[in-house]
Amino acid sequence: MKSLLARKVPSKAERYFSTGISMITSYSTKGPNVMAAEWVLQISYNPVLIAIFIHKGSQTLKNIEKTKEFGVNVASKEQTAQVSVAGGYSGFEIDKINLKNIFKTFTPQKIKSLMISGCTINAECNLVRKEKLGDHVMLVGKVVHIKHDDTKSPLLYHKGRYFGLGPMVEHDRQEVLTTKSILEFFKDLAQGRFVLKCAGVLVESKKNVLVIKWPKTKLETIPFSIPPAGKNQRKHLKKTIREMKLDIQIEKESTMKRLVLKNGKDIQRINFIIFNGKSNSTKSNTWNPKQDDVIANLV
Ligand SMILES: Cc1cc2nc3c(=O)[nH]c(=O)nc-3n(C[C@H](O)[C@H](O)[C@H](O)COP(=O)(O)O)c2cc1C
Fold it and tell me: Which residues line ligand 1 (CB under 6 A)?
């Protein structure tokens, strides 16, 4: 038992994963228990399912196998003491959850395992699946009651250390300042979508690129299509090119442009997957001088 309880601390690449930390609550005839777990993951929306991965020597695993239920209490950044105690001792060693200066608990709605106060999320789960995987056991719980606290911020875990959330990271997109009418044109195509996903073809000839003129606007762009979600974007582009009666061969090689079009405070995000193309009949096409960044300079 002793050797199983000793937590094997990973020494190399495993330490570079970043996770949150939860406190898993459970009970047995001997009383309630809590353990710390970083391997906790929501794995389905409907129903809401949460998978936890628990080592074989823990009291928590024994409890859950018997009672078929557990609580997932996602730790907030004020709870490093609770997590350290829940993870540093086994319920076989001490009665952790009843350490009055460490844990504050509340009575659950749908299960019997006590829940921990001060967390970002409290989810009450019924065990629906158990699977041995390597040296841990996956326990999948169906959430029967859940609540969250918006005022709390999660505790994070990386390289064996606790962290809080840092500042939000901005999307890495190329900013393109554009006119109101061009922005409106793309917003119309996006129809409220957060990101407009386009597939375009770049056909170059000497110092020019092939462009098409959009009806009712003076806008010229490389030929592109807006493939429906889930459809192969190259195939959809090919079809659109045929419908445009353009004689272009679309190659497999592609690049991705991530743009954010801006006009004042108004924006539209656009992803362009751009395929290289070859035109067989250069004469009948419309060509524009080639610029360094084709898409950015066309809009
Ligand atoms: C930050 C942290 C994260 C942990 N994550 C896990 C985990 O995901 N799975 C696991 O089996 N043990 C994990 N542990 C170790 C258990 O919490 C520890 O073995 C605990 O003593 C088990 O308690 P129990 O025997 O009362 O169930 C973690 C410990 C800490 C400190």
Answer: 7, 21, 33, 35-39, 53-55, 58-60, 83, 86-87, 89-92, 136, 157
Q: Which atom of ligand 1 is nearest to the CA of 157?
A: 1
Q: pLDDT (tens digit, 9 = 90+) per residue, 88-142?
A: 999 999 999 999 999 999 999 999 999 999 999 999 999 999 999 999 999 999 9
Task: Label residue 252 exposed, middle or buried (CB < 10 Å: 0-12, 13-18, 19+).
Answer: exposed
* Residue 54: half-sphere exposure toward Cβ, Cα within 13 Å: 29
Q: How far is CA 106 from the centre of its chain?
A: 31
31 residue type, one letter: G
Q: Checking DSSP bridges between strand 18-20 and strand 156-158, what pairing results, if any?
A: antiparallel
Ligand 1 test: best mutation among 8, 19, 25, 38, most atoms within 8 Å of CB?
38
Q: Which H, E and C letters describe 133-180, residue by residue?
A: ECCEEEEEEEEEEEEECCCCCECEEECCEEECCCCCCCCCCEEEECCH
Q: Could you give the CA distance from residue 96 to residue 85 in angstroms, rounded to a whole number? A: 7
Count Cα neighbours of 201 within 13 Å in the Cβ-side half-sphere. 26
Omega before 228 cis (within 30°)?
Answer: no
Q: How many CB atoms lie within 10 A of CB 288?
A: 16
| CA-to-CA separations, 233 to 53, 238, 240, 251, 258, in angstroms, rounded | 38, 9, 11, 13, 16
Cα–Cα distance between 32 and 54 in angstroms, integer? 17
Which ligand 1 atom sits nearest the alpha carbon of residue 58?
25
Helix (H, G, I), strand (E, B) or coil at 25: strand
Could you identify the atom of ligand 1 that is nearest to the CA of residue 39? 8
Please name which of 119, 145, 134, 148 lies closest in space to residue 21, comparing C-alpha atoms.
Answer: 119
pTM (whole model) above 0.90: no
